[in-house]
Amino acid sequence: MLNVETEGSISMANSNHVVFFDTTLRDGEQSPGCTMHHAEKLRMAHKIAALGVDILEAGFPIASTGDFESVRAIAKEVKGPRITALARAKREDIETAAKAIEPAEKSRIHTFLSTSDLHMAAKLKITREQAIDQIAEMVAFARTFTDDVEFSPEDATRTDPDFLLKVCEVAIQAGATTLNLPDTVGYCLPQDYAAMFRMVLERVPGAKDIVLSAHCHDDLGLAVANSIAAIEVGVRQVECSINGIGERAGNAALEEIAAILMVRKDKLPYTNDIVMTELFSASQMLTQCISFGAAPNKAIVGANAFAHASGIHQHGVLANPLTYEILTPASVGYSGQHIVLGKHSGRRALEHRLNELGHKLSKEELNTVYTRFTELADRKKLIYDQDIVGLLQPVTA
Ligand code: KIV
Ligand code: ZN
Question: What is the pTM of this model?
């Protein structure tokens, strides 16, 4: 049985519940083009709370005074999720993080240290033994501020497996209540990521009594697949971000994980508290706060995620949306137009849109307008409602 959080404390709970840990305001915010001002971070934090996430990683307080102030304001104002802050496995970082999250009703310290030989040699200049001592000491130190401490061995997926087992054991013994094994550089394949967690669950004493967590980057486009693979072998926390923002190619997209768990309940019988109808507006709000939006063809929240442009698809969807939609736009809070008129559209889609715009045409009128429409569509990539109404003038005059 795994530990899952309840109000104010850690306790044994339903082992099928997946905890959503949102890192939009930390891993997301630290990536190029995604920095947010204090007010924007607060606005987003309220929206992330409304999304129903369990844990909200508000920032990295040691990084700047601004980040400290934002984390502290979020901890003070935002109710619902447990508020967490990131800290390197260093005294000063942990003290600063603890101070920043202190006003929160529910809080967590998330501390990390690289454990791959490459990172330890090139970046930290420490030996394996020193890393073990530092983890033991700093996790225990973090526990002096709160009974909810997450430890992440950075670059876990490129860490020597035997050493990783030792790291996990030491972190648990020192008091880590969540153990997050990040695929920091997005290198792992789903089967390998799952195997790493299976190994930890089987071989690390106490691993079954804490929460294991996945944190995946999308360098090879596998962040969501890896997160799902982890859930399937017993991981019960997923770290993710709105629109998948995060370092380099980003983190696992929150909306994609939530949608997969909703649409594929047949294969993935897990519960979670995400409010699905908030997904689209959360994505839109983030776009207003940072310098880019989701790609049009981005799953779940992209402008084209529910758009149908070809005549065959439009005919099918108008007859029964299930022909080409596996989830309804309304289920993720999207209420815009989804039949897109263009050169691939058929007569039925045009007639449907004209009806929606209040124009009922005879068969002959429709034929004439459709001919004009195809001529226009050959010249113009996007056809707006006013273009369609413009085509009507001579017919209905
Ligand atoms: O990708 C990573 O390893 C991280 C850690 C700080 C959890 O973001
Ligand atoms: Zn990360």
Answer: 0.93
